[in-house]
Automatic annotation (TrEMBL):
<keyword id="KW-0663">Pyridoxal phosphate</keyword>
<dbReference type="InterPro" id="IPR015421">
    <property type="entry name" value="PyrdxlP-dep_Trfase_major"/>
</dbReference>
<keyword id="KW-0614">Plasmid</keyword>
<dbReference type="GO" id="GO:0030170">
    <property type="term" value="F:pyridoxal phosphate binding"/>
</dbReference>
<protein>
    <submittedName>
        <fullName>Cystathionine beta-lyase</fullName>
        <ecNumber>4.4.1.8</ecNumber>
    </submittedName>
</protein>
<comment type="similarity">
    <text>Belongs to the trans-sulfuration enzymes family.</text>
</comment>
<feature type="modified residue" description="N6-(pyridoxal phosphate)lysine">
    <location>
        <position position="210"/>
    </location>
</feature>
<dbReference type="InterPro" id="IPR015424">
    <property type="entry name" value="PyrdxlP-dep_Trfase"/>
</dbReference>
<dbReference type="GO" id="GO:0019346">
    <property type="term" value="P:transsulfuration"/>
</dbReference>
<dbReference type="GO" id="GO:0047804">
    <property type="term" value="F:cysteine-S-conjugate beta-lyase activity"/>
</dbReference>
<dbReference type="InterPro" id="IPR000277">
    <property type="entry name" value="Cys/Met-Metab_PyrdxlP-dep_enz"/>
</dbReference>
<dbReference type="InterPro" id="IPR006233">
    <property type="entry name" value="Cys_b_lyase_bac"/>
</dbReference>
<dbReference type="Pfam" id="PF01053">
    <property type="entry name" value="Cys_Met_Meta_PP"/>
</dbReference>
<keyword id="KW-0456">Lyase</keyword>
<dbReference type="InterPro" id="IPR015422">
    <property type="entry name" value="PyrdxlP-dep_Trfase_small"/>
</dbReference>
<dbReference type="GO" id="GO:0019450">
    <property type="term" value="P:L-cysteine catabolic process to pyruvate"/>
</dbReference>
Length: 396
């Protein structure tokens, strides 16, 4: 296919998702790419081997299968390059290791994914990196926290479990003045609803386990970098030896084709449920950026194109000694919402949120938090399930 025949970048998101990263006529017209299982790659002669003078040299450095997915993600993210790793957590940790050295200072948002915090407080600190957490609402005031050795700022917007928004352009502007790298976990929004690199972020991180895979059966992460930071990321990942398995890559690429239409459903259902929850006497507060009542709604409306299917609400337990029992009765009363970690799959999920690890943001919500992953079921059925759970909680 000639360049003039290739799909234009002006095409709609769903059209691009269907076509991105792979040309069927490069492989005899088969609409899906072949899954290449490989470690060793042969060279035609000694000179080619000595110079590494061919596209593929060893499977950790890429295969046609991994190229199909990284090319698609590069197009969606607007990235210079992408590496694939075995999980979303690995995607964040590899990115941090790529740009931080002993003696460096890193600013990490306090609403960061809990397992990333654990990595920062154990591995990074052990490696001699100074880790400091900041309030997600800090905006340009983050400049007061910069030190001469600040080398990286990590964002996650919305924040894990409580969905605090961040003023990404304001933080990026400060980081640029101090020549610090900005990394961002953008799993909640995906590049369909927010493109970090378009806002000056250097590195966009995705837990592809979630919406790109979409079926709760794959672990995979992607790290996409701009031109300024790509070389260092690629070198670090090569040194660490991380790579994703070909079958997992294939499944994520297949899931990517339908991510747009799935996200539309996740969004519409989550918004309907969030609005319903706001009207319930048993709910103190709903945490979902698309709601006008949410504290960070204006930032979300300014920068984001949509909202995905994950939200939290505060179960009204103020003054009750049996708060934990009430929360567990609610969760145990659910039938359609499964009790499980992660999100982004087709089934709805629920869990109780633990905020005990936060150091800047205290849990001042007045009750226990329940997080919901709103799946692809019918909204009326999910609401009926929530009604049953609230009834169960009343008797606790």
């Amino acid at each position: 296919m000639s360049e003039t025949e290739r799909p234009s970048l002006s095409l709609g998101e769903n059209t691009r998702l269907v076509r991105a990263g792979y040309d069927p006529f490069d492989h005899h017209g088969f609409i899906n790419p072949p899954v290449v299982h490989a470690s060793t790659v042969l060279f035609p002669d000694a000179e080619t081997m000595a110079k590494h003078d061919q596209k593929y040299t060893y499977a950790t450095r890429g295969t046609p299968t991994s190229d199909a997915l990284t090319d698609a993600i590069n197009e969606l993210e607007g990235a210079t390059g992408t590496v694939l790793v075995p999980s979303g957590l690995a995607a964040v940790t590899v990115a941090l290791l790529a740009y931080l050295s002993p003696g460096d200072h890193a600013l990490i948002v306090d609403s960061v994914y809990g397992n990333v915090r654990h990595f920062c407080d154990t591995m990074l600190v052990r490696f001699g990196v100074q880790v400091e957490y900041y309030n997600p609402a800090i905006g340009s005031e983050i400049e007061k926290m910069f030190r001469p050795n600040t080398r990286l700022v990590h964002l996650e917007a919305p924040g894990s479990n409580t969905f605090e928004m961040q003023d990404v352009p304001a933080i990026v502007a400060v980081a640029r003045r101090h020549e610090a790298v900005v990394t961002m976990d953008n799993t909640w929004a995906t590049p369909l609803f927010f493109k970090p690199l378009d806002f000056g972020v250097d590195v966009s991180i995705q837990a592809s386990t979630k919406y790109p895979a979409g079926h709760a059966d794959i672990l995979l992460g992607s790290i996409s970098a701009n031109e300024r930071t790509w070389k260092r990321l690629k070198q670090a990942n090569g040194a660490l030896g991380f790579c994703a398995a070909p079958d997992d890559i294939y499944q994520v690429l297949r899931g990517l084709r339908t991510m747009g239409v799935r996200l539309e459903r996740h969004q519409s259902s989550a918004l309907a449920i969030a609005e319903w929850l706001e009207a319930q006497a048993e709910v103190e507060q709903v945490l979902y950026p698309a709601l006008p009542s949410f504290a960070g709604h204006s930032l979300w409306a300014r920068d984001f194109k949509g909202a995905s299917g994950v939200l939290s609400f505060v179960l009204s337990t103020a003054g009750e000694k049996s708060a934990r029992r009430k929360s567990h009765a609610f969760l145990d009363g659910l039938r359609l919402f499964g009790l499980g970690y992660s999100w982004g799959g087709f089934q709805s999920l629920a869990l109780e949120v633990d905020l005990s690890d936060r150091t800047v943001l205290a849990n001042s919500y007045g009750g226990l938090l329940i997080r919901l992953q709103v799946g692809l079921e019918d909204v009326k059925d999910l609401i009926n399930d929530l009604k049953r759970a609230f009834e169960a909680a009343k008797g606790a």
